[in-house]
Amino acid sequence: RVYDVAWAPNGRSLLSVGQVGGFVWSLDGPRVALEGDELMRACWHVDGSTVFTGSSQGKIDVRSAADGALATTLDTSQDDEVYGLEMPSDHLLAGAGNTMQLWDVARAE
Q: Where are the beta strands (DSSP E) in 1-109?
């Protein structure tokens, strides 16, 4: 079951997440698997090098788009799923539970 999809900023890759993980699908290379259960939302860093996945447990994983390696996990401190993820600039906007949170990704806070 697929829950969310997002095009890369360069239009050459697609990010999909769902019930049993996710994938980065590239027109230029192999498919990259993203591990995780109940990945509900997904978005790309504006530079296309990083992907963000939001889980049903209120966690946001920050991963390499090239190989899926986990860089860090952001905790929304909510007992509810991540309902929205957007990165319109150098900050990540997340909706989880009854909150909206803005993360400075460079500082991961």
A: 2-7, 13-18, 21-26, 32-34, 39-44, 50-55, 59-64, 70-75, 82-86, 91-96, 99-104
Q: What angle do CA 19, 103, 22 make, to 5 degrees?
A: 20
Residue 14 has pLDDT above 90, yes or no: yes
pTM of the model: 0.92
- Residue 16's pLDDT band (boundaries 50, 70, 90)? very high
Token pair in block for residue 102: 């803005």
CA distance 28 to 90: 26
CA distances from 107 to 74, 92, 98 (A): 11, 11, 24
